[in-house]
Amino acid sequence: MQKEKLAALKEQYSTKIIDGNIISQNLREKVRIHTEKLLQEQQIQPGLAVVLVGDDQASAVYVRNKEKASKELGFYSEVHRLATSTPEQELLSLIQKLNQSPLIHGILVQLPLPKHIEEKNIINAIHPDKDVDGFHPISVGNMVIGQTTFLPCTPAGIVAMLKESQVVTTGREAVVIGRSLIVGKPMANLLIEKGSDATVTVCHSRTQDIKSHTLRADIVIAAIGKANFITADMIREGATVIDVGMNRDTDGTLCGDVDFANVVGKAGKITPVPGGVGPMTITMLMVNTFKSASGIWLV
Ligand code: GUN
What we know:
- By secondary structure, the protein is of the alpha/beta class.
- The protein has two domains: 86 residues, Rossmann fold, CATH 3.40.50; 128 residues, NAD(P)-binding Rossmann-like Domain (Rossmann fold, 3-Layer(aba) Sandwich), CATH 3.40.50.
- The protein is 42% helix and 14% strand.
- The strands form three sheets. Strands 5-4-6-7-10 form a five-stranded parallel beta sheet. Strands 2-1-3 form a three-stranded parallel beta sheet, with helices on both faces. A two-stranded antiparallel sheet has the order 8-9.
- Helix 2 packs parallel to helix 11 and helix 7 packs across helix 8.
- The longest helix has 23 residues.
- The radius of gyration is 19 Å and the shape is globular.
- The two termini are 33 Å apart.
- The mean pLDDT is 97.
- The protein binds guanine.
- Guanine binds next to strand 3 and helix 7.
């Protein structure tokens, strides 16, 4: 959708919009203030290392935004940009260095990685104490058994957004579409945890009749990776719709998994793309890095 059209729809339906930029700004300001205090009182500066392998355009944008946010909050920031051809062993060596660096409290290796690198080997190599992405098996295990741990940033950001927007989840039907390790699976986990207490259905590419599930949902979380996949006929009147998608429309503009222009009228609350889930993902990365440095959870 063109920028102007999205802006007009956001204006028209302003009371329905869950604004990830505003929620993020408030939370980032909290992190910034606490970071200043941590530095003054304990001479600790949270440090985040981001590693990008290859020249994927979308990943390059995400990494730049992570670097920018780190700097704005007063973090120490390192970005390692490596060639697509980088051998797995070289990446593992870099991770070992970062694991041992006293300046670094959080390590993020941007996914996806080039095909010759085994993602699981890389994720497993990051020390769980610095696993601000929450992808290490120890972090995932802790999340599943409800122990305090680094939570994956996108689903944790969505939980924070729902809370901030006073969306009731307790006892409500939530339908997550997508079963990825980054979003779908942890999202389902967090929604059934105590505190969220939703009843959760997970749909995926092999689900028959996704619409029969989404039509029951009080909350739909779309993490499919297909432009405008969720149409108005799939959404119950008044449902909350969270769009995790980052796709290109037929006209080349950024769009989500939800056909925003048609769904916004029917939804009770909805996140736009851009300006919804995206900024929250980065904000939760900052929250996790701050926790790693200070021991303090700000969310
Ligand atoms: N690629 C898309 N989302 C993410 C994320 O949250 N973390 C990492 N490391 N890579 C991603």
